[in-house]
Amino acid sequence: MATQHLSPALSAPAVSAAYPMAKPGYGKRSAPGQQPRTRDDFALLPTRERYVAGFVDHLPDGAAMSIKQLAKQLPLYGQQAISTALNALSVAGHLRRVRCAVGAGDETRWAFRTFWSRTARDNEWWTTYLATETAARTAAPAERPAASVPPAQALAAVPQQRTAPEATPTPAPAPAPAPENPTPATTPTAPAAPPTAPSPAYLALAELGRKDIRLALSADDCAALEEQAGEWLARGVTTDYLIASLTAGLPAQVDCPPRFVRRRLTDKIPPQLPDRPASPSTPAPRLLMECTDCGRPGQPEALPDGLCRPCRATHSAGGHPSPDPTEIAAVKAHMANLRTLLKTP
Questions:
Q1: Same structural domain, 262 and 296
Q2: In whole angstroms, how far apart are CA 117 and each of 9, 58, 75?
Q3: Which domain holds residue 295?
Q4: Is residue 257 domain-shared with residue 221, that is, in the same domain?
Q5: Whether residue 240 is found in the same domain as residue 210
Q6: What tens digit of pLDDT does each residue of 84-112 get?
């Protein structure tokens, strides 16, 4: 538990406009539900931790949070001191470091984020919050935003209502007498339907004559063979494969190109392959918290205070690992030997 320190806090330097930002998806992320910023924030922390926390709190989201970058902006402390301060802020409940996989397939990479909360949170709060973030990442790929109407079109679609001054109503004019021989009203002609685009099978057949003049087909020939060529495409082959199969190994002379193409479409049709089972969608990877000190990944439950077990033991011991008794005995024996040598005339 943090104890109150009555020494005046050092004022953290203002955030420079040139402070480096992390790549998209990396860097600082502010946790929700924080209390408004006050002058007494981080009052229970030691001087160094208050100094670092005040600077991090004013960083914008997406700012680089590496120890090296923070040490460049905080000249009073080096990288080792900044690392120790971040460990203390993690134990105090102000930050958690996580990693998550972004991208798909061969483009997958790890993104590292530092979640920051001005208001100190306990381990249960951080565990629940990271579980909520994981659920949001899992549901995000299935959601599709609704089509939005551009503001200009939306304004144009709204009828413009104008307020006019009240006027005295005038009587409607009498209808004109109908002529004795009225002209019959003409029925508007429906617009002609636009021509349908030719199918890929038709275009492949039409391309044969350009690939080899011996297989030049007329428009009627292409229409007659279109259905048969479409069966090839229905079996998963491409139009390039279809054209190459029909034009490969042609005889020196083709007397009847339509008959020749029909025969090849029948004899060389590719086999029907079974439908491939749909590959199960890869679930969005869960956010993995990592140790604030050593970066070891793990579940939030296994990293209380944001530290793994070895780093937590080191932090509890005051920042220094417990010395090995064997090493202590060896050092004492070495020093005793040196004293003996100094006494020898």
A1: no
A2: 19, 11, 24
A3: 27-141+286-316
A4: yes
A5: yes
A6: 999 999 999 999 988 877 766 566 677 78
